[in-house]
């Protein structure tokens, strides 16, 4: 399928939102910023780290699994030391392509070997828009981001709590989020990984939502699960529990180190690559011990710290180089890999746009398989921005158009049109142009290509103000996908019962 997104302008100037399903594929060759010798030096250094330094695994069951697989475990310090041969033998069991599906049977994704998927932003505690400013996220905001994600064809996977619902109880609001995912979209969704019970609840609700047993869910995965190590060299206990539960069910697991160069990793891109490689491969090995062949996404998230403030500096040249190099490392092990569309700006402004474009460009030219935070990330991930969501959709759509293969044949070259116009004419009225009038070039969602006078007559709206109107239209025009009311009732009963059980533990 063509990669170009289908959101387009209609005659009255409003927007029509496509419900088509896009499976994106990158036809271009990946950029290589490392030579083979450098790749092997990073590999060898990361193996040395795992052998000599080891990794602290803060979950007893995970340590027992590693011990059972033949790795050296020091239980008092919680450190696991990995021999490289045993580690690489396990990593080789993970497939090169991962699949995940939504409730709509047509909404199935392939990630890896050039295939690309995008998710919405994940996890910010705050939300912002031009009307109400920056504020704590609410369940209504969470629902709005779910609706916009469902309406957008360039986002194939829900983000995973695109905004944290701080108006709901902290220990049970994940259940409200799961239920909203089931009600508001038929796309794949990302459940939480913090603790065994959150994973089990997601699995039980998926069994109801899909009407399938665990064997069927394992054979045809429904979850793309993303989580993080606690860099440097720590796997948190509750995170490990979630990974174990999802891996047992054969779901798509991605564990991503946060390689903040200068803070949680050495102050070089090369050093951050070593840390990232060591940590994500150790977690890959865990999934393969649990279930050989479990789909695993190599987690990539290298950026640098602002050495004056200690803050993450996203969308930098180092982020771009790190993403391109991460692609090379992931391909060395035959794994799909994950990147992000990120920026460090505090407003949906020019800085937010150019840092995001650096992030997108580096990861796509490095052949990323899936993008977390594909739309809506602001303020270094602390804010889910309505306007930035729309601006990101525009940028992702532009990158999708770039991934559409260039066609060169007699028809596209247009020799007849060139002969018809001759020297000094124009092509506006030729048959060749008129036949392509509607779909000749990329159609903007946010960009305004009118001249200054026409733009001024519209009230001189900048890109953020135009995006403000678009997200409101998306929310207003949202239509929920069809679902059997009996399924919703069963899901609601499950959530109500689990809330009572969890509240009793307070």
Describe the overall structure.
The chain has a domain at 8-30 and 92-401: Alpha-Beta Barrel (TIM Barrel). Helices cover 43% and strands 14% of the residues. Helix 8 crosses helix 9 (269-290), helix 9 packs parallel to helix 10 (317-332) and helix 12 (386-402) crosses helix 17 (463-477). The strands form six sheets. The chain has a seven-stranded mixed beta sheet with strand order 3-9-20-19-16-14-12. It has a four-stranded mixed beta sheet with strand order 5-6-4-13. It is an alpha/beta fold.
Contiguous helical run count: 18
Span from first to last CA? 51 Å
Which strand order does the major sheet show? Answer: 3-9-20-19-16-14-12
Rg: 24 Å
CATH topology of one domain: TIM Barrel
Mean pLDDT: 94
CATH architecture of one domain: Alpha-Beta Barrel
Query: Would you state the CATH class of one domain?
Result: Alpha Beta
The major sheet is characterized as: 7 strands, mixed
Unreliable segments (pLDDT under 50, ≥5 consecutive)?
A: 1-14
Structure summary, number of beta strands: 22
Helix and strand content put the structural class at: alpha/beta
- Assembly state (oligomeric): single chain
* Cα shape: globular
Helix content: 40-55%
- CATH homologous superfamily (4th level) name of one domain: Trimethylamine methyltransferase-like
Strand coverage percent: 5-15%
């Amino acid at each position: 399928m063509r990669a170009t997104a289908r959101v387009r302008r209609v005659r009255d100037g409003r927007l029509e939102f496509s419900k088509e399903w896009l499976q994106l594929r990158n036809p271009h060759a990946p950029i290589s910023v490392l030579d083979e010798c450098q790749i092997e030096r990073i590999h060898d250094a990361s193996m040395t780290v795992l052998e000599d330094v080891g990794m602290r695994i803060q979950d007893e069951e995970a340590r027992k699994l590693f011990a059972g697989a033949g790795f050296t475990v020091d239980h008092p310090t919680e450190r696991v030391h990995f021999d490289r041969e045993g580690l690489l033998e396990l990593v080789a069991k993970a497939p090169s392509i991962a699949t995940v599906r939504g409730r709509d049977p047509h909404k199935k994704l392939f990630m890896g070997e050039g295939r690309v998927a995008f998710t919405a932003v994940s996890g910010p505690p705050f939300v912002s828009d031009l009307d109400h400013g920056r504020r704590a996220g609410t369940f209504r905001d969470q629902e709005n981001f779910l609706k916009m994600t469902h309406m957008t064809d360039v986002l194939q996977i829900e983000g995973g709590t695109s905004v944290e619902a701080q108006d709901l109880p902290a220990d049970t609001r994940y259940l409200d989020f799961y239920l909203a995912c089931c009600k508001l979209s038929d796309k794949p969704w990302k459940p939480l990984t913090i603790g065994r019970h959150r994973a089990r609840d997601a699995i039980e609700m998926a069994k109801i939502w899909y009407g399938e047993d665990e064997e069927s869910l394992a054979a045809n995965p429904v979850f793309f699960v993303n989580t993080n190590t606690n860099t440097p060299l720590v796997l948190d206990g509750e995170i490990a529990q979630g990974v174990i539960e999802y891996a047992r069910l054969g779901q798509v697991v991605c564990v991503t180190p946060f390689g903040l160069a200068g803070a949680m990793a050495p102050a070089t891109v090369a050093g951050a690559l070593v840390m990232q490689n060591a940590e994500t491969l150790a977690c890959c090995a865990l999934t393969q011990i649990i279930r050989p062949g479990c789909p695993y996404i190599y987690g990539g998230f290298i950026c640098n710290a602002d050495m004056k403030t200690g803050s993450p500096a996203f969308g930098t040249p180092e982020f771009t180089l790190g993403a391109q190099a991460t692609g090379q490392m992931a391909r060395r092990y035959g794994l799909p890999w994950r990147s992000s569309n990120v920026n460090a700006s505090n407003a949906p402004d020019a800085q937010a746009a150019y840092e995001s474009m650096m992030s997108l460009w580096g990861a796509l030219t490095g052949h990323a398989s899936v993008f977390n935070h594909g739309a809506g990330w602001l303020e270094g991930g602390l804010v889910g921005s309505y306007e930035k969501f729309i601006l990101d959709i525009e940028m992702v759509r532009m990158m999708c158009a770039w991934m559409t293969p260039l066609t060169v044949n007699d028809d596209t070259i247009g020799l007849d049109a060139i002969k018809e116009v001759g020297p000094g004419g124009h092509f506006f009225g030729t048959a060749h142009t008129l036949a392509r009038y509607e779909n000749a070039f990329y159609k903007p969602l946010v960009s305004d290509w009118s001249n200054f006078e026409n733009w001024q007559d519209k009230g001189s709206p900048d890109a953020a103000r135009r995006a403000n109107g678009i997200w409101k239209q998306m929310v207003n025009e949202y239509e929920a996908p069809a679902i059997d009311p009996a399924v919703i009732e069963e899901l609601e009963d499950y959530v109500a019962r689990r809330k009572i059980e969890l509240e009793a533990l307070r």
